[in-house]
Design a protein that fits this description.
N-(1-d-carboxylethyl)-l-norvaline Dehydrogenase, domain 2, single chain
Length: about 290
Amino acid sequence: MQLGLVGLGRMGGNMRERLRAAGHEVIGFDRNPGVSDTASLAELAEKLAAPRAVWLMVPAQYTEATVDGLIEVLSPGDIVIDGGNSRFSDDLPRAEKLDQHGIGYIDVGVSGGIWGRENGYGLMVGGDEQHVERLMPIFDALKPAGEFGFVHAGPVGAGHYAKMVHNGIEYGLMHAYAEGYELLTASELVTNVPGVFKSWREGTVVRSWLLDLLDRALDEDPELADLSGYTEDTGEGRWTVDEAVRLGVPLNVITASLFARFVSRQDDSPAMKAVSALRQQFGGHAVRKN
């Protein structure tokens, strides 16, 4: 099958290679001419046979402008697939805008990171059944071998919604491992913290790919001395918590893990200064001063 792919960074570039290895023809466009197959979106459209399918792997803040650019060069019967980390609430308005030009739309939550080229990508898809069915050869090539790794989650927006919740869960899982790591390093008894994590990789109920990756990180830097504790968030965790508030669903772990990332960015927490001041005022407790 032929596919246009816009955005050839760490994810998009590896997806292109996985698809080509599976026998598909992939024509890519990227603002970096060193990796791009075409010089413009217009040239990309010219090289694709109708009906076209164009997959976007661009940062969310550039998605809408890219879609607008594609509207100018695509034709009725074509399909746009957004595999970036767009907010699910942007999908339906985007689909309606494309539909005015006779262009279909699919949203796909993509998981797999830099390892997807080798291991395959988890795909969570939202869109009309006919559009999804048309793209199944592409989905089959990108997903891992076997029965898992793909779901048609529902109509337009469902794919990005599923990926949002996936990433919220990821926040909680990562933070649980991180808290366990901190407690082990604080213990007077455990002298081989990396070895403990390595032992958990088989035969335990906490084994996972995230645990494997933490073990890999500890092999490279047993005390994580070269890393800063400053931790960014890319939006999905916030959106997950927003939805929990809207629907009245308690997300204690995911919310706490998101707030922990905020704490990581404070060199000297104003809130904790206030707590120290209150403890000193009501109880005369000793405080540390800068």
